[in-house]
Design brief:
By secondary structure, this protein is an alpha/beta fold. 38% of the residues lie in helices and 14% in strands. The chain contains 11 helices and 11 strands. The protein has a 6-stranded parallel beta sheet with strand order 2-1-3-4-5-6, with helices on both faces. Strands 9-8-7-10-11 form a 5-stranded parallel beta sheet. Helix 3 runs parallel beside helix 4.
Amino acid sequence: MQICPTFPPNIGGVGNYAKILCDHLKKRKIKSKILISDHLDNKNNKKNLFGKKNKNLLLLLENNISQNVVLHFSGYGYASRGLCFNLIKSLEIWKQNKSNRKLITIFHEIYATGPFYRMSFWTSFLQKYLAKKLFKLTDICLATSKQNQFILSSFGQKKKIIYSNVFSNVGELKKNKKIKERKNNAIIFGNTYQKKILYKDIILNKNKYETLLKKMSVTEIIDIGPKVNISKSISFKTINLKNIGIRTKSYISYLLANSKVGLVYYPVGQMTKSGIVAAYAAHGLVIINFCKKELSKFNEFISGVNYLSNTSGNLKNISQKLSNESYKNYNKYALNRTASLLIKNLKT
């Protein structure tokens, strides 16, 4: 049994993650019933919805014979302001009712933070309290970033915490493709919010992006996904920007496998939990990320090793190495490994 905030066809990174995991487990003869919060107006099968206030969750849990629950945790997906008291309480009662029940929590998010003038600052204390309570309740934890793994380990409980990055939701290459055999394309991929952030940085640092892309011999940027109006204000001298809209997963995979560069603007410490970054890495693109937030020696992504964050040096000579390292690092934690870890821990 898996619990998640939303589920395809509804849009949401956590829901997509759960769907891919569910499909993969099914191939390995493990079926999952999906219980979904309707906090995001989910239009899936009504009998599997447990409501914005999570009041029906305990009833759905008790009516299912499964003794194992995988919870995809991101507080904002289950309750307003991320204050999911009823979710935690329902799981607490469910576990208390039978001693052999097991809870595995995948911490996509733990708690939000922000400056004092934002609501996230004032709710962070309660969110942290709830996260600690869930951590204590959980038998096995999985974190999708090293930073989140560190935060969980600081909660003081001796507990198994598995690290495994988010996997690509548009497939994976079985073998990496050489950069010189790809087209001179760069990819911009993702939802409206993430693309807006990237485009704003491109506008502020246009010369830096153009210099780096020219060094990579890029002649066209292909924008995949919802159109972002801000992109109309960007024009490069030698690089064409083309928006192709929403496409099928197989076609997106084809484009990624035959392009050289993937553009993203994302905090470095959280790159492992980005589905966009995962898609790029799974297809061996050279990832360009000029964001300087959350730089740390503990990060899985290291500038100049498995992604680019500056314009210096002969990039043609190192592009294949960057591609190989990114692809290799992704496959250490790919879908099959994550599923195997879950199966192993469900059986023990």
